Amino acid sequence: MSHIFSQLNQLLLGSIPTIVIFLLLLFFLRAVLYAPLRQTLAERRGRTEDRMNAARQLLEQATAAAARHEAALREQQLAGYQRLQELRRQALRQRSQQLETARQEAMRHLAAATAELAEESQAARLSLQNSAQQNAEQILAALLPHANGAQA
């Protein structure tokens, strides 16, 4: 057993320089490699988060702008629809006015034609009365000379 302890003792004494070199290498790597690497990773993470935040803000701004544009578009569509309705109402009013004007014109023509027809009818009655009177006088004249001659 003492032989084993002696071998373990030699092994431990022989491994002390390796342990010291390992610990020095560990501190050296932490100072030279890991610290700058962690710093670089932290900076990268910070830049990434900054860019993500900027991208979120841009997305929010774009969403807000799209909402404003959609609202403006809806307003323009509504204004266009209202303008179209107003134009339709104007066209209907104009059509109604034209129809009323045409109806009044037709009524004037009808009244004028009725008056003209009444005048022509009156003139025809007078003409017929005159013709009837003349015919009656001619008939009487034709019959009366025979009657006058028979009495005389």
Q: Summarize this, please?
A:
With 152 residues, the protein is mainly α. The chain has one helix spanning 2-151.
Give a written overview of the molecule.
- This protein starts with a helix and ends with a helix.
- The mean pLDDT is 90.
- With 152 residues, it is mainly α.
Helical/strand content category: mainly alpha
- What sort of overall outline do the alpha carbons produce when their principal axes are compared? rod-shaped
> Compute the gyration radius: what is it?
63 Å
- Report the biggest beta sheet as strand number plus sense, adding barrel if it closes: none
Number of helices: 1
Query: Uncertain regions: pLDDT < 50 for 5+ in a row?
Result: none
Number of strands: 0
Question: Strand content of the residues, in percent?
Answer: under 5%
Cα end-to-end separation: 206 Å
Task: Estimate percent helicity.
Answer: over 70%
| Strand and helix order | H
Average pLDDT level: 90
Task: Give me the secondary-structure topology.
Elements: H1 2-151
